[in-house]
Amino acid sequence: MAEFLEKTSLEVVNSPAGIEGPGFFATRLDKVIGLARANSIWPLPFATSCCGIEFMATMAAHYDMGRFGAERLSFSPRQADLLMVMGTIAKKMGPILKQVYTQMAEPRWVLSMGACASSGGIFDTYSVLQGIDRIIPVDVYVPGCPPRPEQVLDGIVKIQELIKNESLRRRNQPEYKEMLAKYGIE
Ligand code: SF4
Predict the structure, then answer these.
(1) DSSP secondary structure letters along 151-178
(2) pTM: predicted TM-score of the whole model, two decimal places
(3) Strand, coil or helix: what is 85?
(4) Cα of 44 from ligand 1 centre, angstroms
(5) Whose C-alpha lies nearest to ligand 1, atom 5?
(6) Ligand 1 centre from 40 Cα, in Å?
(7) Is the CB of 131 under 6 A from ligand 1?
(8) Cβ(140)–Cβ(108) under 8 Å?
(9) Residue pLDDT, tens place only, 107-137
(10) Is-contact 84 46, C-beta < 8 A?
């Protein structure tokens, strides 16, 4: 294995913070779980327009989101932990997006890609939702119209940082439940 790694440019994921010594390594359980979750994200692409095309480029060989352990896309909310919303969301689509979010099991994260998903973009009109955070909570916003693949990857890295550092208890805390309640989500 060591020989193989020397011959390639692959890098092994760093171990979580802990205490090391000869023959042992100790860390916290939530750090290990965070590391595993962050490097095995299953994204659900909710793509409605042009930002979705940019996402396809991000998935393709040149940018290759698989390098971040997130190449396994899920088209079922029940087998996804990162909802990626990309494109214009019409108000009629809002309830469907919310249903997809509520069908995802905890822990779940949301990335809003592009101006349209984040704020309605140039479509300041009666039929377009002026930002998905009006109906579901968002963890990371990626600006741009459309954002470049590098920006999307940067957003994924930000999500990874959140996942790695999130307490396992966060989802049971009253603040989290209160935040969901504001969105009418139990
Ligand atoms: S932000 Fe720009 S590229 Fe993305 S969906 Fe809206 S109009 Fe299209």
Answers:
(1) HHHHHHHHHHHHHHH--TTGGGSHHHHH
(2) 0.89
(3) strand
(4) 18
(5) 87
(6) 27
(7) no
(8) no
(9) 999 999 999 999 999 999 999 999 999 999 9
(10) yes
Confidence of residue 12 (pLDDT cuts 50, 70, 90): confident
Is residue 121 within 6 Å of ligand 1 at its C-beta? yes
* Eight-class DSSP state of 12: P
Give the pLDDT confidence score for residue 2 in this predicted structure. Answer: 62
Distance CA 62, CA 153 (A): 12
Residue 37 dihedral angles phi and psi, to the nearest 5°: -65, -45
Look at residue 10 and tell me whether its pLDDT is greater than 90.
no
The finding on whether 43 has its CB within 6 A of some atom of ligand 1 is: no
Single-letter residue type at 11 = E
Residue 142, amino acid? V
Measured from the CB, is residue 152 less than 6 Å from ligand 1?
no
Question: Which residue segments constitute the domains of the chain, with CATH numbers given?
Answer: 41-166 (3.40.50.12280)
The per-residue pLDDT for range 51-103, each reduced to its tens digit, is 999 999 999 999 999 999 999 999 999 999 999 999 999 999 999 999 999 99
Q: How far away, in angstroms, is 96 Cα from ligand 1 center? A: 20
Q: Which amino acid is it at 114?
A: G
